[in-house]
Amino acid sequence: MPITRPTKEDVAQLGSDLHFMLTSDEVSEFHSLMGGMFDAYDLIDAMPNPVPAVEFPRTPGARPSADKNKLGAWACKTEVNGAAEGKLSGKTIVLKDNVALAGVPMMNGSTTLEGFIPAADATIVTRILEAGGTIAGKAVSEHFCLSGGSHTSDPGPVHNPHRHGYSAGGSSSGSAALVAAGEVDMAIGGDQGGSIRIPSSFCGTYGMKPTHGLVPYTGVMPIEATIDHTGPITANVADNALFLEVLAGADGRDPRQYAPKTDNYTAALGQGVKGMKIGILTEGFDFPNMDPAVADKARAAAERFRALGAKVSEVSLPEHHIAGAAWNPITLEGFTAQMMHGNGMGFNWKGQYDVGLLDAHSGWRDRADDLSATMKICMMVGQWGLSHYRGRYYAKSQNIALSIKSAYDALLNEYDILLMPTLPITAQPLPGKDASITEIVARAFEMTNTTCPFDITGHPAMSIPCGMIDGLPVGLMLVAGDYREATIYQAASAFEADVDWTTQ
Question: Do 42 and 70 reside in the same domain of the chain?
Answer without folding.
Answer: no
